[in-house]
Write a structure and sequence with these properties.
The chain is built from 24 helices and 12 strands. By secondary structure, it is of the alpha/beta class. The protein has 4 domains: 2-24 and 201-263, Helicase, Ruva Protein, domain 3 (Orthogonal Bundle); 40-196, P-loop containing nucleotide triphosphate hydrolases (Rossmann fold, 3-Layer(aba) Sandwich); 268-381, Up-down Bundle (Zinc Finger, Delta Prime, domain 3), CATH 1.20.272.10; 407-583, no CATH class. The termini are far apart.
């Protein structure tokens, strides 16, 4: 073995080995490629179905393997080929030691054809294949045709393959593999047994990487393996390729910082720091973390996507009882997220997650992505807490308990009506102490006081309202200028509608008739214009009612403001009184 010393300036202590027999380094994805069904990680449903088919003798003539890249489609096709052609007989696991298994593993078997559908997609290629499969296998049990990326075949090529695919010779088996099954014609799909390969879960990728690292005598932490596995995005081959890249850079001793720097992935601790700062409202730490991300040169939108995924994980953990069945996370990461989500409600997480999703969408067309992310995170950190419905109900119950032990207000019999509510069957307002006037009540002499005059006028207006409401409604806006035996002088505001209506001869006749009934003698009615704001004339009944009502409502408002229940409600809900109404 010839050992080459790395040139000066190379950070990695790794050795560059070239074997004396000319053998070159084999990448991990090829070196540790699954050779049996039991080695297929994350595809147990496919392995079990194929093994049962082999054991029961129900092996179809055409298979279609679909799924994402690097999940084991081609490897499964080779394992299937070895299982069917193994010298030890058709068994659910190949021996991998007989010459036939070794040839298939190395890709040198003359009876197993691996065809790339992207480069052999013409109708002539399919015709040649169709002519060759007529011959019996040279030394194997079956001729097996493996076509990778079969969706790349042309329409004419698919048509040329249809008849052979439906009724192939007994010694031929077809195995197709594709990442885009929707591009295959329905006529092809209906002639194959389809197997959908799943994306390999993160824990299984981490377990496989740990096994390979131990075999390669590599010192690496679980957190670094989690970063590498996440970089693979469900693909075992991509994860092994990323591990190969890390080993080339770091050698046999791998640090977490080197993995993050090399792969360009976000340190999970940074995501935890940002979410903690958001929950604590620590804007200083929040902006410091964004600055660190910017200094590293990480793409802000991609970092925002990582944050969205992080908050989504927290939301799932706080919302369900068994998040491990939903989240594709390692056990250590799941425990850390559980601790962080312990003191946060699902509602708060949903509100913050909505802000981040909106920011990520806007960053696609923004000139200042860092500013958008900072604004979204600051808004998330400064969100006001939301009081749940249950808490509000409990506080209302507490207020009701306080109200039970509070003496009632004088106006409790007349409930306060919310602003804007309609009044049903409103009672006419009247000044307190008014009595229904009796007929034939004598008018006071001129020497009587103004109070007596107002009292007699109010009784007269009430009497008119009972007899003729239309006339009474006009008299309510008149002021009693003179009330003597046989004479009644009424003043109305100058230029008002009421003055015009009162000057009508019919109106005067009706009032004279009613006045005669009220006093028991013939009474002369005089109507005069007055200036309302002069202060020299008595106020009308309408003005008196308005003044009395305003005074009453002001007293009512003061009592409402001083009530203990209202004071407590203002404190709990941060409310204020805008209007008080009676009904």
């Amino acid at each position: 073995m010839l050992t080459l010393t790395p040139p000066a300036g190379v950070r990695s202590p790794a050795r560059f080995d070239l074997l004396s027999n000319g053998t070159h380094y084999e990448v991990l994805a090829r070196k540790y490629r699954p050779q049996t069904f039991s080695e297929l990680a994350g595809q147990e449903h496919v392995s079990r179905t194929l093994q049962n088919a082999i054991d029961s003798g129900r092996v179809a003539h055409a298979f279609l393997f679909t799924g994402a890249r690097g999940v084991g489609k081609t490897s499964t096709a080779r394992i299937m080929a070895k299982t069917l052609n193994c010298e030890k007989g058709v068994t659910h696991e190949p021996c991998n030691v007989c010459p036939l298994c070794i040839e298939i593993t190395k890709g040198t078997s003359t009876d197993v054809f691996e065809i790339d559908g992207a480069s052999n997609n013409g109708v002539e290629d399919v015709r040649d294949l169709r002519d060759n499969i007529k011959y019996l296998p040279s030394h194997s049990r079956y001729r097996i045709i493996i076509i990778d990326e079969v969706h790349m075949l042309s329409t004419n090529a698919f048509n040329a393959l249809l008849k052979t695919l439906e009724e192939p010779p007994e010694h031929v088996k077809f195995i197709f593999a594709t990442t885009e099954p929707h591009k295959l014609p329905v006529t092809i799909l209906s002639r194959c047994q389809r197997f959908d390969f799943k994306r390999v879960t993160l824990p299984k990728i981490i377990a496989r990487l740990r096994e390979i690292s131990d075999r390669e005598s590599v010192t690496i932490s679980d957190s670094s393996l989690a970063l590498i596995a996440r970089k693979g995005d469900g693909s075992m081959r991509d994860s092994l390729t990323a591990l190969d890249q890390v080993l080339a850079f770091c050698g046999n001793t791998v640090s977490d910082e080197d993995v993050g720097t090399l792969l360009g992935t976000v340190d999970r601790r940074l995501l935890a720091e940002i979410s903690s700062a958001v929950f604590c409202g620590d804007t200083q730490a929040l902006l410091d973390c964004i600055k660190r991300v910017d200094l590293v040169g990480y793409n802000m939108r991609q970092f925002c996507q990582e944050l969205v995924e992080h908050f989504r994980n927290l939301l799932v953990i706080s919302s369900v009882g068994k998040p491990e069945d939903i989240l594709d996370l390692a056990a250590a990461e799941l425990d850390e997220l559980r601790m962080q989500a312990a003191n946060v409600t699902s509602q708060d997480l949903q509100r913050r997650l909505t802000l981040l999703v909106k920011a990520e969408t806007e960053m696609a067309h923004a000139s200042f992505p860092r500013l958008l992310l900072e604004m979204a995170l600051l808004k998330a950190a400064l969100l006001s807490p939301v009081i749940s419905i249950q808490d509000l109900i409990e506080k209302i119950k507490a207020l009701e308990a306080v109200a039970v032990h509070t003496p009632p207000l004088p106006w409790d019999s007349q409930r306060v009506k919310p602003a804007g509510a309609r009044q049903n069957n409103p009672e006419p307002l009247s000044a307190p102490g008014y009595r229904q006037p009796l007929p034939h009540s004598p008018l006071p002499p001129a020497a009587h006081s103004v109070a007596d005059s107002q009292s007699v006028w109010s009784r007269f207006v009430s009497f008119v309202n009972e007899q003729l409401p239309s006339v009474g409604s006009i008299l309510e806006h008149g002021s009693p200028l003179k009330q003597e035996t046989g004479v009644m002088e009424i003043g109305f505001p100058l230029g008002s509608y009421y003055l015009t209506a009162a000057q009508d001869a019919g109106f005067a006749a009706e009032v004279r008739t009613l006045a005669s009934q009220f006093t028991g003698m013939d009474t002369l009615i005089r109507v005069k214009p007055i200036t309302p704001d002069s202060g020299e004339t008595p106020i009308s009944m309408a003005e008196k009612k308005k003044c009395d009502h305003e005074k009453h409502m002001e007293e009512l408002r003061l009592e409402v403001q001083k009530h203990s229940v209202i004071i407590e409600a203002e404190r709990v809900f941060g409310a204020r009184i805008t209007d008080v109404r009676e009904f």
